[in-house]
Specification:
mainly alpha, 9 helices
């Protein structure tokens, strides 16, 4: 897939990202994403990836990203399985996208989302929110999957710096059919 000025406009790319795009010559989407990673523009790389993905890929990407940070929450709240349950519900939906499984994933999201807003530790709450709420909700509404991976990557970044964000982006590239 080629990235063009029209494509950027269609997806309402941010002005800074558009300016960056025109400072370089690459148009192949995978190569553009890899360039963004090299230049530490993980947020723009993620933005591009999710706009190239279909619904199933978005949910897979969100779940993968969530799994990278769930441990942060589980260390803080070892007796709360709701984030993990939400991730598992989203995985079930990926493998069998029935209405029943979609509703179960949404229910897992809803059960956790209310709690996440009140969690005492903001960093753990955000990591868990990324890990559970958005991943599970992605199965219900794929549009939100676009945010899921970025939130998970962003909070993972706070804990593991660029290595984990790069790993999440590389997984997204592999889902698009690009080599890692």
């Amino acid at each position: 897939m080629k990235i063009t000025k029209a494509w950027l406009k269609e997806y309402n790319a941010c002005p800074e990202g558009v300016r960056w795009f025109f400072t370089q010559t690459e148009t192949d989407s995978i190569k553009v994403i890899k360039k963004l990673v090299v230049e530490n523009h993980f947020d723009w790389a993620n933005w591009t990836i999710v706009r190239l993905m279909n619904k199933k890929q978005k949910v897979q990407y969100a779940v993968f990203a969530a799994e990278q940070v769930i441990e942060i929450y589980e260390k803080k709240y070892p007796n709360d399985s709701r984030p993990r349950d939400a991730i598992e519900a989203a995985k079930i939906y990926i493998n069998s996208p029935t209405a029943k499984n979609k509703n179960a994933a949404y229910a897992a999201y809803a059960a956790y989302a209310a709690y996440a807003a009140y969690a005492a530790d903001a960093a753990a709450a955000y990591a868990a929110y990324a890990a559970a709420a958005y991943a599970a909700y992605a199965a219900y509404a794929a549009a939100y999957a676009a945010y899921a991976a970025d939130y998970a990557a962003a909070y993972a970044y706070a804990y593991a710096r660029s290595k984990l964000r790069k790993q999440i982006i590389e997984y997204g590239i592999s889902l698009l059919g690009g080599s890692e």
